[in-house]
Amino acid sequence: MATPPSLRIDNLLAALDAAEIGQTPVEVHGALVGIICGGVEQSKDTWCKPLLELMNDGHPLPDPLHLLIEELYQDTLSRISDIEFGFSPMLPEEEEPLTQRVEALSLWVQSFLTGIAMVQPKIDKASADVQEVIKDLADIALIEFDVAEDEESELAYMELMEFAKVAALLCYSEFGPDLTDLNQKEANVIH
């Protein structure tokens, strides 16, 4: 599934800047994915309150930005709930310097961990696998930004990015909706 043009990083950055929100698109996406993977109720705008707490101290966003973030939520939810839609963290393109991409990955992971912690009070009671990936993600969040622009560093970055993706999917499978429940399936249908 192709990313809608409106949800490109540069469009989100322009909207965040226009609203004077001091976060990057990478941080907003990481927090949003954390909130979704933490098991926030998907049938209502329940995701909005914790995200606004992180983005804007709980204050409403200007309408254009709110609509864009809502579109990002719907797109992200579609991607993370159906493996065929190709979920991955929102990060700079590979044309950007590796140092910038590593820093963005670290910010995405930090925001993901914050988002999941906001909505999942039982994270310390999660399965051993989830607890281990949370610990590993915390280590990734502390990664050094000053990396060499070589093939070995590029491969390491790709592995960390793939790990973040799989970790998010694992958290979603543990804390997300039980898709065997028919009522929940109906609540997850995006209209």
Note the main attributes of this structure.
single chain; 191 residues; mainly alpha; Four Helix Bundle (Hemerythrin (Met), subunit A); 8 helices; globular; disordered C terminus
* Uncertain parts: 182-191
The CATH topology is Four Helix Bundle (Hemerythrin (Met), subunit A)
User: Got a strand count?
Assistant: 0
**Structural class assignment:** mainly alpha
Mean of residue pLDDT values:
88
Proportion in helices: 55-70%
CATH architecture: Up-down Bundle
Family: Belongs to the UPF0149 family.
Organism: Shewanella benthica KT99
InterPro entries: YgfB-like (IPR011978), YgfB-like_sf (IPR036255)
Protein name: YecA family protein
